[in-house]
Amino acid sequence: MKKTILGNKSSIHPYPVTILGANVKAKPNFMTLAFVGIVNANPGMVAIGCGKRHYTNAGIKENMTFSINIPSADMIKIVDYIGCVTGNKEDKSGLFKVFYGKLGTAPMIEECPLCLECKVLKILDLGGFDDVIIGEIIESYCEEKCLTNDMLDIEKLKPFLMSMYENKYFAIGDYLGKAWKIGMDYKQKK
Amino acid sequence: MKKTILGNKSSIHPYPVTILGANVKAKPNFMTLAFVGIVNANPGMVAIGCGKRHYTNAGIKENMTFSINIPSADMIKIVDYIGCVTGNKEDKSGLFKVFYGKLGTAPMIEECPLCLECKVLKILDLGGFDDVIIGEIIESYCEEKCLTNDMLDIEKLKPFLMSMYENKYFAIGDYLGKAWKIGMDYKQKK
């Protein structure tokens, strides 16, 4: 093994850039979130890590609902901004046009092309800096212009990415091939 | 709300493309994994969703260890291949050069530029198709050629992405700006 040891870092590269939404004291609040991943299909479930001291966490615990909003790359400045300021000091409720879905208390962002409405299944304290929150995706809401044949088209959605530690944002790049297809005929060296 | 309703789908876009490794019956086994995200910093923790019937799950439960390996885009064919065939039917132990770290039972892939060695903290059955597994990252191992000033450089790492449902792989694209900086001066419309 000739690799360099980097320590116990959180290094899944790349990170998706999303916006976490929750009602806090009956007002919508939003923060940038990269600690997020899908952990179940049918029904969709999402796991997030969210710093215990964050203003948003109080709202998630109050309502047991939250939203994950996927912004497009042209929203980069406002997305970064809401990761720079806390709802504790600044009212972020007027930054976006907000809508609600089936759960009634998970604020979602009209300007984001894709919004996931979630109810909390588990909140775990595993001794780290973050609350680990697992939610079920109750409904997904997508801009029609981001669909191709009624299916989400990532090249129309134009989400963006983050590289942690170097703290850089990147766009989606070139199409490389079809999943469950491009490697189908790969032959194992015997 | 003028959005199209897509149902309770697992739609965090994009998904990182990773390889999940575990020893099953004392032999290394690997599968492609996109249901993965960081859920804690310091120590790094990762949450994954892995179909209960997968061969790999048995090994994770047996040893309570696993690895997350970040492949570079030039590995796309073999990465897709190991998502097409199950370890139940095909021995995948000879596909990569394997190394072990501190835990001794989490097989990692020499050919991948970044490898995360993980021990299981929780395995949750939330009633879905997948086991939801949360692991602590015990150590990270990185190719020296992917570092800049001792820090992971995503443009050298060249990981790749996936878009679920349309099942397409994409490269990392253009650099868009610095996180916690590009939006710092965004002013809220009053």
Short account of what is shown:
Two copies of one chain form a homodimer. Chain A has 190 residues and is mainly β.
Keyphrases for this structure?
globular; homodimer; 3-stranded antiparallel β-sheet; mainly beta; 190 residues; 7-stranded antiparallel β-sheet
Explain this structure.
- By secondary structure, chain A is mainly beta.
- The first copy, chain A, has helices at 55-63, 76-84, 154-157; strands spanning 4-5, 15-16, 18-24, 27-33, 36-40, 45-51, 65-70, 98-99, 108-109, 114-124, 130-142, 147-148, 151-152, 160-163, 168-178.
- In chain A, strand 10 and strand 11 (130-142) form a beta hairpin.
- At the A-B interface, strand 1, strand 2, strand 5, strand 6 and helix 2 of A face strand 1, strand 2, strand 5, strand 6 and helix 2 of B.
Write the layout of secondary structure elements.
2 copies of one chain form a homodimer.
Chain A: E1 4-5, E2 15-16, E3 18-24, E4 27-33, E5 36-40, E6 45-51, H1 55-63, E7 65-70, H2 76-84, E8 98-99, E9 108-109, E10 114-124, E11 130-142, E12 147-148, E13 151-152, H3 154-157, E14 160-163, E15 168-178
Antiparallel strand pairs in A: 2-14, 3-4, 3-7, 5-6, 6-11, 7-10, 8-9, 10-11, 12-13, 14-15
Q: Describe the largest sheet of chain A.
A: 7 strands, antiparallel
Oligomer: homodimer
Shape of chain A: globular
State the order of secondary-structure elements of chain A, H for helix, E for strand: EEEEEEHEHEEEEEEHEE
Uncertain runs of chain A are none
Spatial arrangement of strands, main beta sheet of chain A: 4-3-7-10-11-6-5
- Cα gyration radius of chain A (Å): 18 Å
The largest inter-chain interface, given as chain pair and residues per side, is: A-B, 111 and 111 residues
Number of strands of chain A: 15
Structural class of chain A: mainly beta
